[in-house]
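Worked example 3 (structure in, sequence out).
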């Protein structure tokens, strides 16, 4: 009877301990999928131009689509923020107007760099694609490795901070240079969760990305000068730097299970005490 009461108590405690974890685990995927798909509102939600270098890269939010017009042979640059536990996917579509469609094959390439301007390898996706003659568009994609909260100084792992996108055509002939094109770029991320968590975090995210802002020299003058400013983009919930992951939840559940196992083992092995027929001190 005593063991049955202990067992019932253990089951009740386990249910109480696991309920918040299960509710949190069920809510997290929904929040993770809702966040990237939501596009910010306002005029800044859809940038219509791209930079021509790292310093002039256009800022874009995750989940928003950016467009730009350019010419074959140009380098088009954008920048976006990525936090620990995210796996960003960059997609680009290059539209070739009928007047500028290549007479021969034309190769387009998309590259992604981190805040230290280190080129990051694509885990999968068509990073380079060749447009055949008279092709109307070219679609490119690059899925990065999961962003880590911390890494060794010698490693080339993706870290929280600013990421740069560079889109350009490579191996062009002289006749294909300077032809007008239009590009569409979009960045989405998948929240990987505790499976990508590491023991450590950066003191600050790698946000050396620099954009240019136009400032008027005088209130009465219309002309102004461009000045450099640090990137103002950051994730919607701020930089987490890996301080929280669902591994904390499962670690807590494991601790509760270990405690219940100890209580149950003690109840099974301690016995019923001294028999009544044995006198004290015998």
């Amino acid at each position: 009877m005593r063991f049955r009461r202990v067992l019932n108590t253990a089951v009740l405690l386990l249910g109480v301990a696991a309920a918040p974890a299960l509710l949190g685990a069920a809510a997290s995927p929904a929040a993770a999928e809702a966040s990237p798909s939501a596009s910010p509102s306002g005029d800044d939600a859809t940038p219509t131009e791209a930079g021509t270098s790292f310093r002039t890269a256009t800022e874009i939010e995750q989940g928003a689509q950016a467009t730009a017009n350019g010419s074959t042979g140009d380098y088009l640059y954008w920048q976006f923020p990525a936090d620990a536990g995210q796996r960003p996917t960059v997609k680009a579509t290059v539209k070739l107007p009928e007047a500028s469609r290549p007479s021969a094959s034309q190769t387009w390439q998309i590259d992604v760099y981190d805040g230290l301007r280190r080129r990051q390898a694509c885990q999968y996706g068509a990073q380079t694609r060749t447009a055949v003659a008279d092709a109307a568009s070219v679609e490119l994609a690059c899925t990065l490795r999961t962003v880590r909260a911390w890494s060794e100084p010698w490693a080339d792992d993706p870290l929280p901070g600013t990421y740069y996108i560079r889109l350009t055509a490579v191996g062009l002939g002289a006749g294909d240079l300077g032809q007008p094109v239009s590009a569409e770029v979009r960045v989405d991320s998948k929240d990987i969760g505790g499976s990508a968590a590491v023991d450590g975090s950066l003191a600050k995210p790698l946000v050396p990305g620099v954009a240019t802002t136009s400032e008027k020299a005088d209130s009465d003058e219309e002309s102004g000068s461009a000045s450099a400013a640090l990137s103002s983009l950051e994730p919607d919930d701020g930089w987490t730097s890996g301080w929280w992951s669902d591994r904390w939840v499962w670690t807590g559940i494991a601790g509760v299970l270990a405690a219940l196992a100890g209580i149950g083992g003690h109840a099974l092995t301690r016995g019923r005490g001294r028999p009544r027929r044995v006198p004290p001190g015998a």
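Notes: Residues 135 and 146 are 33 Å apart (CA to CA). The longest strand covers residues 180-191.
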